[in-house]
Structure formats: structure tokens, C-alpha cells
Amino acid sequence: MAYITATDLALGYDSQIIVQGLNFSVDRGDYLCIVGENGSGKTTLMKTLLHLRQPVGGQILTGDGLDPNEIGYLPQQTNIQRDFPASVKEIVLSGCLGRCGLRPFYRKAEKDLAKENMQRMGIEELANRCYRDLSGGQQQRVLLARALCAAEKVLLLDEPVAGLDPVVTAQMYELIAGLNKEGITIIMISHDISAALMYASHILHIGEDIFFGTRDEYLKSKTGRNFAAGQEEK
Questions:
Q1: CA separation for the pair 116, 80 (Å, rounded)
Q2: Residue 178 in domain
Q3: For residue 131, what are the domain limits?
Q4: What pLDDT, on the 0 to 100 scale, is given for residue 229?
Q5: FRET label pair with 22: which of 43, 103, 160, 208, CA 20 to 30 Å apart?
Q6: What DSSP letter does each residue of the chain carry, written as one string?
Q7: Edge-to-edge, what's the strand order for the sheet holding 57-62?
Q8: Under a CB-based contact definition with an 8 Å cutoff, are residues 216 and 198 in contact?
Q9: What is the CA radius of gyration of the chain?
Q10: 132 lies in a domain?
Q11: Residue 68 lies in a domain
Q12: Domain count, the chain
């Protein structure tokens, strides 16, 4: 069975449907990009996958040994979050809170995991720096390290390169692709259709038209061709 399977999924607020008829699955090792116009329900889907919002209809099932606690999340940053007055080490370590249960302290294993993920993201030298003093790209690396401390198998990323310059954007995409090659399953919302088509193994298009399939199938579909052409014109 797939890690995640959505069947006849309908999303919305207060029973008002935004999008319906979503059917897709995510297998171990997939790199799924969720694309579509603004307001089509992409972030609502992400919150539903995280069980922060209930679907209006249909269902989401997990399988293949995936536990909800093994899903890490990198949300879009707000200006308040960018100004958070804590050290890099404290923020990364906070990703281990779910492992602590009711225990009010971190064990050596959790501190070692935080150190390992800071090294993984190339930010170990920033450990004692204040988060709000970092560049946008450095902050995203910190949040990725934090999400990796929380996740074992799946990372959900909501526009992880928003607001970053082109050079740092390319570095972030390569970093995420590297994590996927290590075996971490990626589910990413993206407005960057060219990057989605470069890195993703599968595409979920949400909007007036709904599509789910491999990257190659999306490129051949009418939905994919029209959306890619429309993005190029903007």
C-alpha cells in the first residue's frame, strides 16, 4: 500500500467546497509537486494531509508503515516568524519535541539528531547565531533541519523558496532533491512550474482541471501544456 492514498477527496471551509474529486497516491521515495492557480486549495490540502483540517468529503489513508508522526512540515514563513528571537540550535532542536512525550528535557540522542541535521543542511557553524539575523536562505535551511528532526520518512513543503533570490532558490531545490535521493519522500507546493517539471516524479494539478500522474504524463496532458504555457506568459 502507498504511504498516502486520497480517495474522492473534497476540501473546503465550513462545508463550503473549494475543490473536490481529488484522487492520488504517494509512494515511498516519490517527489510530488502540487501545482495550480492561487486559491485552488493547495495549502488547504497540505493542512488536511497534516490532519490540521478535516476533509469535507472522501478520505485520506496512510500505509506502508507510515505513522503521522513521521511527517515533517515546512510551512510558508510569515514576517513574525522570520523575526523569531531564538538560536539556530534551539529552533532545530525543537523539531524533536514530538519525540520527548511528557519529558521536559532533551536526551543526548535528540541533541545528536539536531547536530546531524544541522550538518546535513550545512548550518552547523550557525548553531549559536540568532535566527532572525540570518539570511532568508539560511533561515530556510534551519527550518528544513528542524523538519528533518520531526520527520523520518516524509517532508511536506509549502513554497519553500518563496522570497529567495535565484541563486539561493537553485541551491534550495538541489538540497531538497538531495534529500529525496537519500530516500525521503517529498510533497511540495510550488508556483514554479519549471522547477516542478525538473525535479518532481509526480504532479498533482489542482484547479478547474484536476490531474494526477507522472511528470511525463503531465507534460503530455492538455492540463499540463496549458498551465505551463500560461505560467510562461506571466
A1: 27
A2: no
A3: 78-152
A4: 73
A5: 160
A6: --SEEEEEEEEEETTEEEEEEEEEEE-TT-EEEEE-STTSSHHHHHHHHTTSS--SEEEEEE-TT--GGGEEEEPPPPHHHHT--SBHHHHHHGGGHHHHTT-SS--HHHHHHHHHHHHHTT-GGGTTSBGGGS-HHHHHHHHHHHHHHH-SSEEEEESTTTT--HHHHHHHHHHHHHHHHTT-EEEEE-S-HHHHHHH-SEEEE-SSS-EEEEHHHHHHSHHHHHHHHHHHH-
A7: 16-26, 4-13, 57-62
A8: no
A9: 18
A10: yes
A11: no
A12: 1
Question: Which cell numbers hold the place of 134?
Answer: 540570518
Report if residue 146 sits inside a domain: yes
Grid cell digits, residue 75: 510551512
The amino acid at residue 184 is I
pLDDT tens across 110-145, in order? Answer: 899 999 999 999 999 999 999 999 998 999 999 999
pLDDT digits (tens, 9 = 90+) for 12-44: 877 688 999 999 999 999 999 999 888 888 989
- Return the C-alpha cell found at 179: 534529500
